[in-house]
Amino acid sequence: xxxxxINKTFSLSHGGGERFSLNLxxxxxxxxxxxxxFAQQVDSLPEQVTLHLIPVVRPxxxxxxxxxxxxxxxxxxETFDIVYGLTQVFPQDLHRxxxxxxxxxxxxxxxxxxxxxxxxxxxxxxLANLYLESRIYHTGNFRHIVTNSQLCKRxxxxxxxxxxxxxxxxxxxxxCATFDPEKVVFHRDLMREKxxxxxxxxxxxxxxxxxxxKGLDVLLRAVAFLGEKGRPFHVVVVGRGKPESFRKQIQxxxxxxxxxxxxxxxxxxxxxxxxxxxxxxxxxxxxxxxxLEAMACGLPVVTTAANGVAEIIRPGENGFVQQDPSNxxxxxxxxxxxLPEKHRSKIGQAAQDTAxxxxxxxxxxxTLELCLHVLEEKSA
Length: 380
Hints:
By secondary structure, this protein is α/β, with parallel strands linked by helices. It contains 16 helices and 15 strands.
């Protein structure tokens, strides 16, 4: 098949969606397909994959709209068996709802309707996202929707009335050869020494770019809530962000020497060897790849019911699910349970056993099956 994949970024050094896009392009090429990608930023792309580079336009709200417009113009002279959009573009055959529903996120972020509408008015970015989202799910602009969780499938039905038969849930896959306990532990001592962690310290990994949305402030409050009982806990923050915006909170909570900001990294796998558990108290996440990667590395994971990953977690067995993302006391109870090494080891092993069921090969097989189904539908 001649397949077009569309996303702004294809990269191993960005978030889960960008890593997924690059891995998908590589896997489709290895299966013998003619893969074309339309993107603004790319790294580590196989030479055999055809790149169609989209110029970057500023400011941000214009960039969002311009990308969709430029992709349509660039594809006008091309013919593809499958057009697979992994970002906000239309029309397309398949659309992967990797970022969830923007309307839902705005309701989560601004529950008070007048504040929500005020933010729509003062922030053109929100209006641009909302416009494109409404166009994507308009009849005739898609054939099929792919979500990576039942959570997002429900949201697609609730907010845009998409029939359930036009939505397929394909859970994310993890590369178990890369995210492997024996491999990541190789870096443990050296990486922990660089961070100033002692052998008795228990490292809580927080891997994200949008720290506020992903709940860093709640995690910090939960560690402080434990008081002396939580003294062994250190928080290791991996990813892009602004540490300065959290410095005052860290000092106020008395965590000054127990929070470590690593900054951006292209070698995120190494940090799974540093950590003893991963915590992501996110306000909204369709399916956070970092949770699945951590589970594959044998780490217990604590996340929220607002994260699609919660659907594969059996609370108390292979992880924990926080019902209220803003409740640091609820999170603190889970952290306290994971303080003893024997508990972390047992739950981490169960997490690994779960993760190995969600392979990239499984994801690819389900994706290809859906592509063929859509291709048959187009031919008919």
